[in-house]
Amino acid sequence: MAGEPQSDCLFCKIVAGEVPATIVRETETTVAFRDINPQAPTHVLVIPRLHYPDAASLAAGAPTVAADVLREAGEIAAREKTADSGYRIVFNTGAGAGQTVFHAHAHVLGGRGLNWPPG
Question: Is 105 in the active site?
Fold first, then answer.
C-alpha cells in the first residue's frame, strides 16, 4: 500500500536503519544520503520516509511530502556548496528512465558541468 514501508524496498530499509547509508541530513519527512555510485562530485539522494514507487505517485498521494523532498534538495545543494554554481534535481520514473529502486527519490547532482541534454 502506498505510503507504507515495503519489506523488499532498499530505501525503506535505509529509512528504518536496517541498511547502512552515508546520511547527510534527516527531517521528519525525508532522509538524504550519498549515492553509492556517484555521477558527480555532489550526488545525494533525497527520499521521503513514506514509500511511494515514483515521483508522480508521491506528488498525487502526499503533495506536501513531495514539496519537502524538493525543499531538502535545495538545502542539500546549499550545504554542498553547489547552489551558487548550479545543480540538477533528477527524478527517474520507470525502468526505461533508469529508475532502479522503486521508492520515490530525487538525485541532487552538482560540482561539475552538467551538459544538456543528459546522456
Answer: yes
